[in-house]
Amino acid sequence: MNLAQLSYFRHLAKIQHYTRASEELHISQSALSHSIASLEDELGCSLFRKEGRNVYLTDDGRLFQKYVDQGLAAIEQGVAELQQRHGMLTGAIEIGAIATVRSSYLPAAMKAYSDKYGSLVEFHVAQGETGPLNQRLEQGVYDLVIAGPHHRPDIECKTLFYQQLVVAVRRDHPLASLTSIHWDNLVGHTVNTYRRGIMVGETLEAFLKATNAPLEKLTLVRNYEDEVMLGALAVHESSVALTMLTSNLLPDPNMVVIPLDVEGAETFYPISLTYQKKAIRMPAAQSFIDFLQTFEAPRYERDDFRKE
What we know:
By secondary structure, the chain is an alpha/beta fold. It has three domains: 3-75, Orthogonal Bundle (Arc Repressor Mutant, subunit A); 89-161 and 270-292, Periplasmic binding protein-like II (D-Maltodextrin-Binding Protein, domain 2); 165-259, 3-Layer(aba) Sandwich (D-Maltodextrin-Binding Protein, domain 2), CATH 3.40.190. 41% of the residues lie in helices and 23% in strands. The protein has eleven helices and twelve strands. The protein has a five-stranded mixed β-sheet, with helices on both faces. It has a five-stranded mixed β-sheet with strand order 9-8-10-7-11. Strands 1-2 form a two-stranded antiparallel sheet. Helix 9 (199-210) links the parallel strand 8 and strand 9. The radius of gyration is 24 Å and the shape is elongated. The termini are far apart.
């Protein structure tokens, strides 16, 4: 048994497909099959079972995976710490992020980190929704996630910045001339906004109640999931969008974005950094987690946003 075999086992357990795993490992499929077979012979048990073109861990394989992951992570951490001691911070950082931070906040943070620590660290960034991203964080797929809040006993959750709740309308809409908007200004207009059942929709539900929004007077259409659709409806239907100010709210020459003059609108939706409390991480990943907690997020600004 050697480190190469253990690394091959770990990768095949992740990919669950011999051909794809061998391609990513840059070895032949026969070499990978021989390595796994040799490992199984030495251990005296089957680690994988085949189902069609895929392979899945057996019960013995899952048990073995736990210790292989811990052992290889400890070795990799040792190597990285020696490199760090000698002035070389290297390795790859696995990041899960929602779309709105991938286009503005995260690139700025990655550049600032590389400017400080050098360019030898690789960033692997995957996009998704808050819930699935944090599930994969708990499974050990990501070192950290930047998304909506996720509270679990074994997960650290720290707020990095907030996304503002605003109103978007066409430039020829009756509300477009206002410099700020209160709930009363929305009475008599169709207001498109986030649906219930998603995290931002539930945050909106709590916000409406906390700010005593006149729900019996407002015509809220709560059918939508993101700012792309809300912004498009505001422009093409001349309706009102109650939306977050993010890069997903695509700029349009016919649209104006107006501040919502309601307490708490500027800090409407927290964007959080989440990571496992007790996970063994490479020094590069831990240093990036520490860096993000002191990094000042650049304010998202755009020409069509009417400041108060």
